Amino acid sequence: ICRGLAALPISCLERAKDVKTRLGILLHKPELGHRTGASSKLQLGSRQRDSSREVLEWRESFDQLLKSKSGVTAFHTFLKTEFSEENLDFWLACEDFKKTRSKTKLASKANRIFEEFVQNEAPREVNIDHETREITRKNLSGATSACFNEAQAKTRTLMEKDSYPRFLKSASYQDMTKQA
């Protein structure tokens, strides 16, 4: 797939990303006939295990949401409906990466994360500016547990300012708070 995508002109890839974004927006417009049935609502496995207080704490801050395992699951499910789960997946991969102690594993994990999320036209490319992308690329030469810090921070800020407010307004989160 990657080789096939690499052969496409940049304008086609940009157009595909634009279409992806527009489809995500259309899926959330109820007047277009999209109904949220029980199967399309956030599935947390067992809502009974989620304490009411925990669900309500998610709206206090983005940090509260990220500290909660079920909060991350609910947010990830929401991001899938917007076709933007790569941002959270990248953030989680960076968190896992920081826990790596072996130098050889550190380098291989760093390259894998970079190729999957950061490099231009990566399969699950995150939305970061060119400068941050270049800084991250240079950091790979001497991979440390901090080599993705800037890119991770930019992605986190994007989620906090953009996706997180929409998550809090979503019907799924509203349903969870009503049950809480």
Can you give a write-up of this model?
The protein is mainly α and 180 residues long. It has a single domain (47-179), classed as Regulator of G-protein Signalling 4, domain 2. The chain is built from 10 helices and no strands. Helix 6 (85-98) packs across helix 9 and helix 8 crosses helix 9. It is elongated.
Short note summarizing the structure:
The protein contains ten helices and no strands.
Identify low-pLDDT runs.
Answer: 21-40, 43-50
Structural class: mainly alpha
Give the CATH level 1 class.
Mainly Alpha
| CATH fold-type name | Regulator of G-protein Signalling 4, domain 2
**Biggest beta-sheet profile:** none
Number of strands: 0
Mean pLDDT: 81
Radius of gyration: 18 Å
Give the topology string: H per helix, E per strand.
Answer: HHHHHHHHHH
Strand content: under 5%
Q: Can you tell me the overall shape? A: elongated
Q: What share of residues is helical?
A: 55-70%
**How many structural units, i.e. domains?**
1
CATH level-4 homologous superfamily: Regulator of G-protein Signalling 4, domain 2
Alpha carbon gap, first and last residue = 44 Å
CATH architecture: Orthogonal Bundle
Total number of helices: 10
